[in-house]
Amino acid sequence: MTRKDEGIGRILIEEAEIREAVREIAAFLDAETTGRTPLLVGVLTGAVTFMSDLMRAMENHVEIDFMAVSSYGDDTTSSGVVRILKDLNKDIAGRHVVVVEDIVDSGLTLQYLLDHLARREPARITVVALLRKNKPDAVDVQVDRTGFDIPDEFVVGYGLDYAGRYRNVPYIGVLDPSAIREWV
Ligand code: 5GP
């Protein structure tokens, strides 16, 4: 237990399990993109850790780019409002784009992002997400490969934050409710 783990009630997904899932998703993407150089599009900020491990686990050539969107305030529930804070640097027309998401919750952010990307006429879009929440009322959005289906709880670690903290925790954990109350 180090300082950065304080407030985490329990570990949901261990580092070794994440590593294995990342390897499987990388193998899936290598097979999907054989002979081509996909553009991996990471969704900031939560997906940086996943993106960084995923691209290194792939055997194919890749290029990377990032987008920043916001659908959350400092709260732990989805607002449904999506804003683009940073757009892509690269032109995606005719390219195979792989959207790399940390977590799909309501699916609203991803749905918005996919509409936005599709308008630029990429040859193909593949979507991978490390985590997907089991939510009956989530929108039906394209996700081609998921690492883990998780319960509808607020998780942190491996890039995911709560009020800016916990991104550098190497596993996925569930916050202790007392930690949430302390900071709001
Ligand atoms: P959605 O639009 O699918 O509801 O939410 C997507 C975004 O909300 C994610 O990219 C992530 O930034 C944030 N989010 C959703 N659920 C969680 C969670 O359990 N923990 C954290 N830290 N962020 C979440």
Describe the protein in words.
The chain is of the alpha/beta class and 184 residues long. The protein has four helices and nine strands, in the order βαβαβββαββββα. Strand 2, helix 2 (48-57) and strand 3 (63-70) form a beta-alpha-beta unit. Helix 1 crosses helix 2. It is globular. The two termini are 24 Å apart. The mean pLDDT is 92. It binds guanosine-5'-monophosphate (5GP).
Features:
binds guanosine-5'-monophosphate, 4 helices, alpha/beta, six-stranded mixed sheet, 184 residues
Break the fold down into its secondary structure elements and pairings.
Blueprint: E1 8-13, H1 15-32, E2 39-44, H2 48-57, E3 63-70, E4 83-86, E5 96-104, H3 108-118, E6 124-133, E7 145-150, E8 155-156, E9 172-175, H4 177-183
Parallel strand pairs: 2-3, 2-5, 5-6, 6-7
Antiparallel strand pairs: 1-9, 3-4, 8-9
Helix pairs in contact: 1-2
The protein binds guanosine-5'-monophosphate.
Shape: globular
Total helical elements: 4
Major sheet details: 6 strands, mixed
Strand percentage, roughly? 25-35%
> Could you report the average pLDDT, rounded to the nearest whole number?
92
Order the strands across the largest sheet as they lie in space.
4-3-2-5-6-7
Helix and strand succession?
EHEHEEEHEEEEH
Give the termini separation. 24 Å
Uncertain segments: none
Helix content range of the residues, please? Answer: 25-40%
Bound molecules: guanosine-5'-monophosphate
Tally of DSSP β-strands: 9
The whole-angstrom Rg is 16 Å
Structural class: alpha/beta
